[in-house]
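Researcher: Please translate sequence to structure tokens.
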Amino acid sequence: MNASGTVVAAHGRQYRVELDGGETLSCFTRGKKSELACGDRVSIRYSDSNQGVIETIAPRRSLLYRSNAFREKLIAANVSQIIIVVATEPSFSDELVTRCLVAAESQNLRALIVLNKCDLTDRLPAAEATLTPFARIGYPLLRLSARTDASALRPFLSGQTSVLVGQSGMGKSTLINALLPGVRAATRKISTALDTGKHTTTHATLYRLDAQSALIDSPGLQAFGLHHLAPAAIERAFPELRPFLGQCRFRDCRHAREPDCAVRAALTRGELDSRRYAVFQRLLSEAG
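Model: Translation complete:
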């Protein structure tokens, strides 16, 4: 007997599939290589009363993934929104935020930056200063403290399939617990000596908020490679560059040292953030 459903948890080659009828089934793929992501729509065949075999994957509306020169790591499929979680403590990488936003732009996803742990008021000004360039170019920024009240996030989740991404220790699991108290996602203290978070979430998991809304919690990130993006896609993924594209002297301008570069001119005039421009150049270098 065959059935259809959604992958709601991915553990290596083992998956939990929520069938359309509401039942959740442990499933496996055929062969050794697996290319499934949390959020994928699949058809399965029952192998016995407690397990299933995934036969096919439905065409995806979106696929969020990262890559380096050697491999790709799938994060989530069929999401409509990426929520980048940062915090006042531990410190976070603004380059990682930029890379997550570039990935979102490349898949035409909505993006929201959540600044968590805003109750730590002594750390708040520095965190907000780091996020100012993102707010300036139009990315929405939500300030909250998940341990106290995460209700301000709910309107952003309504009608969306969202994925939480960010470094370890930013409070993604705490957000899940605040929004879905019955889940009891594991949380861990940060290392104050090293100013780093510890990995708590080990695999992606999809949670239903209501019939139209879902939230995927993903493992903490320390890097977000985008080797799969072509230079033209990288350019378009920086909204602040778009008004200047096509205005350079050379059609194949890499916006580095070429003469009469409209992007470099905008940078010199102070119209572009220098740190985001530096990430842009690193991404072009990675693309080859």
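Researcher: Any highlights?
Model: The longest helix spans residues 274-287.
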